[in-house]
Amino acid sequence: MELAHLTWTDVDSLSRDTPVIVPIAAMEQHGRHLPFVTDSLLTGEIARRAHESLADEILLAPLMWLGNSHHHLDFPGTVSAQPRVWIDLLGGIVDNFVVHGFRRIVVLNGHGGNDVPGRQALFEVRQRYRERRDLLLLLATYWNLADAAATIPELQQPDMGHACEWETSMMLRLAPELVKNHQDAPEIELGNAFSPAQRAWTMRDRSGPGHIGAPGRATPEKGEQLLQLFAAGLVALLRRVVRWDGNSWEG
Q1: Rounded-to-integer distance, Cα 229 and Cα 232, Å
Q2: Which of 30, 40, 96, 243 is 20–30 Å from 17 (CA)?
């Protein structure tokens, strides 16, 4: 069920144990070869594919395209919310569904910069309803829902980057007309030399052209495999949410 296509009476008739899926993405630069809409397109497609499998069991909210992307602001065109504003915005959306009585809310994230503030937003919502034992509030970043590197041996990158082999492959599958000369993009190493410490950074610290990884190795075939894998991972998670007993930690 897609929220945007329903009336309020349709929603009112739903069980409040119906999982609500809130997809979130970003509108930010993706190097010289991918468009600003990349995160929104990919997250939306993964949500769409999962919805096809679970259409009568979940409520899918419209995608929130505004992300926390301040680390990309050196690149013209990036649109980003201030971190505190973004946390309050996402928390407010989740609050709306709690007020409407829904108890199982899954935020589906498709932008790495949303991960930390997204967790904070859900942490704060949970504290506002701390007396409740019937709330399940989850944030899931889609590329963490499956082990792509282990499952797809053709992939050269071991992990997701930014405008990388993985994202470029999925874009070549979904919207090849929006991909520009990805074969010419240089490989920029993944990783953090100071790991396990977390380094504060901007994209200019890491990459002149604005990407990280190996977009030149992307293919549409890899893209389809990735989309299928991540959508299947999301379906598996949502089925666990549907089966949750309504109050226990393990479910």
Answers
A1: 5
A2: 40
Cα distance between residue 236 and residue 48, in whole Å: 14
**Edge-to-edge strand list for the sheet holding 104-109:** 59-60, 20-24, 104-109, 136-141
Q: 219 lies in which domain range?
A: 7-243
Residue 213 lies in a domain: yes
In-domain check, residue 166: yes
Does a structural domain hold residue 202? yes
Q: How many structural domains is the chain composed of?
A: 1
pLDDT in tens, 105-131: 999 999 999 999 999 999 999 999 999
Q: What is the pLDDT of residue 50?
A: 98
- Over residues 31-81, the pLDDT tens digits come to 999 999 999 999 999 999 999 999 999 999 999 999 999 999 999 999 999
Of residues 167, 158, 111, 160, the one with CA closest to residue 139: 111
Q: What is the CATH number of the domain that holds 217?
A: 3.40.50.10310
The Cα diameter of the chain in Å comes to 55
- Tell me the average pLDDT across 167-195: 95
